[in-house]
Amino acid sequence: MITILNEVKSLGVFVAYDVVYGVDNTRYTSQLEEEINRIVEEIRGALSLETLKDHHIIRAYRDFYWKTLKIDPTKQRPAQEALLRRVLRGESLPRINPVVDAGNAISIKYIVPIGLYDISKIHGKTLRIRLSRKGEVFHPIGGQPHELDDQIVLASNDQILHVYPYRDSVETKIDVSTKDVLIVVAGVPGVEEERLINATLHLRRLLSLLGGVADGDVRLA
């Protein structure tokens, strides 16, 4: 389902991805709540706000922002770092809906950015990670539509799902009506494939608590 074009693969971009069908995203289960709370407490015991920036995985994503994306990661933080900082300050994880909350919990546990997409809203079955084309417009969650300029994107033929590896589109966002979910865990140089695979498998298990059933093995691209 996902291929990475050579123009982007040369930058060290890679992903693990999975498809989970049949989730019930209308209500939280006690098991899911317990798992999310357990992960939050585990993270608070394992990491500290003062040393987070020196963690080798955080460092890898920050370096990718600086060197490849030309983004200052202290101003536009990697998504998982922003969530971790919130938790380590004693705040709760944001509560949006069960699927997204499960994704956020796994994101902080494995320190990787996770994109979640409603399959029913995706145009077509083939997705590519590539550079954006002149004139393409992105519709971010929580932001205004804007034209992209030579950025790494996850896209179908006529739809931008994600600006890599930090912002998702409102067009394919997860909501309470979502049944079938595409999981994409974004990798950068210095992050091992096994971490992405384990994060994907763990999220698959959490979504099974919402009735979700995975489609085959976790795939890498």
Question: Can you describe what's shown?
Answer:
By secondary structure, this protein is α+β, with helices and mostly antiparallel strands. The protein has one domain (2-220): Phenylalanyl-trna Synthetase, Chain B, domain 3 (Phenylalanyl-tRNA Synthetase, Chain B, domain 3, 3-Layer(bba) Sandwich). 33% of the residues lie in helices and 21% in strands. It has helices at residues 6-9, 30-46, 56-69, 79-88, 98-110, 193-208; strands at residues 2-4, 14-21, 114-118, 127-131, 137-138, 146-147, 152-155, 160-163, 167-168, 181-187, 213-214, 219-220. The strands form 3 sheets. Strands 1-4-7-8-9 form a 5-stranded mixed sheet. The longest helix has 17 residues, at 30-46. The chain is globular and about 45 Å long. The termini are close together.
What can be said about this structure in brief?
With 221 residues, the chain is an alpha+beta fold.
Round the Cα radius of gyration to an integer and report it: 16 Å
| SS-based class | alpha+beta
- Domain count: the total is 1
CATH topology title: Phenylalanyl-tRNA Synthetase, Chain B, domain 3
Name the strands of the widest sheet in spatial order: 1-4-7-8-9
Low-confidence parts: none
Instruction: Report the β-strand fraction as a percent range.
Output: 15-25%
Termini distance? 9 Å
Pfam family, one: B3_4
Enzyme class: transferase
EC number: 2.7.9.2
Organism: Pyrobaculum islandicum (strain DSM 4184 / JCM 9189 / GEO3)
State the main characteristics:
221 residues; alpha+beta; Phenylalanyl-tRNA Synthetase, Chain B, domain 3; 5-stranded mixed sheet; 5-stranded antiparallel sheet; 6 helices; 12 strands; 33% helix; globular; EC 2.7.9.2; Phosphoenolpyruvate synthase
